Amino acid sequence: MELLNQFSGKRQRGLSLLYAMLALAALAITSIGLMRSVSMSSTVAGNLGFQQEATAAADQATRQVIATLYSKVSGNSTGLDSDISDIGYYASTDELVDVTGSQLTTNTRKLIKWTSTYCGEQASGTYAECTMLPVTLAGKINGNTASYVAFRLCDAAGSSEGATINCARPLKASTTSGTNEVRDYSSGTGVSKSTILPYIRIVVRVSGARNTTSYTETIVHF
Asked: How far apart are CA 87 and CA 145, in angstroms?
């Protein structure tokens, strides 16, 4: 009987040790899961925080760009008919321009030289040129650096009223017939090209902490 009791006691202690080890293993796994959960939550919170800051910075940058562009056409409707490189403005739009570097896959695409090292960071043979220069706004916005380019939505530089230049422009109440006009097909009327200036596409690139980057696009007209 004494031998049986000793054997039973050892067996119970062995089972207790096994249960304790299983419990420790479960706690370890739970701790790892908790750490990963906290880490992922922090990452998500950080990403959301940057997105909010980037959006605010891009909004402020866009307002500055709009003011700069408007100053060129205020009292002079032809002020944006030609490229103005020192303000990052291009009077025509090229469909091959890849503003983010990831919009197009063709090796004929054209990249914007957002930074001094940007072109070298792209895979050789995946683009045709990388010469278009943006403008970086002076000073940081909420700790972020903002750069931009602006494109007039026309197929060529020059007067948007020229017969050979096609531009995208908003509809206007006054209408005339003619070619190269924006047309409201629901009413069957055309819009005179002389009523309003073409659309301008503004692309803002915001660079923030930890090499984070965002792009925003705004379409405006004057």
From this structure: 16
Residue in 118, 100, 117, 98 with CA at minimum distance from that of residue 108 = 98
In whole angstroms, what is the distance from residue 214 CA to residue 58 CA?
9
pTM assigned to the model:
0.70
pLDDT digits (tens, 9 = 90+) for 115-147: 999 998 888 899 999 999 999 999 888 889 999
Report the distance separating Cα 218 and Cα 222, nearest Å.
Answer: 13
Report the SS3 class of residue 7: helix
Taking the CA atoms of 83, 89, 91 and 96 in sequence, report the sign of the dihedral they define. Answer: positive
CB atoms within 10 A of CB 94: 12
Pair of tokens at residue 213:
């980057």
- Cα–Cα distance between 191 and 189 in angstroms, integer? 7
* Amino acid letter for position 23: A
Give the separation between CA 72 and CA 94, rounded to whole angstroms: 22
Where in the chain are the domains?
2-160+197-220
Q: Which of 124, 95, 96 is nearest to 110 (CA)?
A: 96
Q: Could you give the CA distance from residue 29 to residue 188 in angstroms, rounded to a whole number?
A: 69
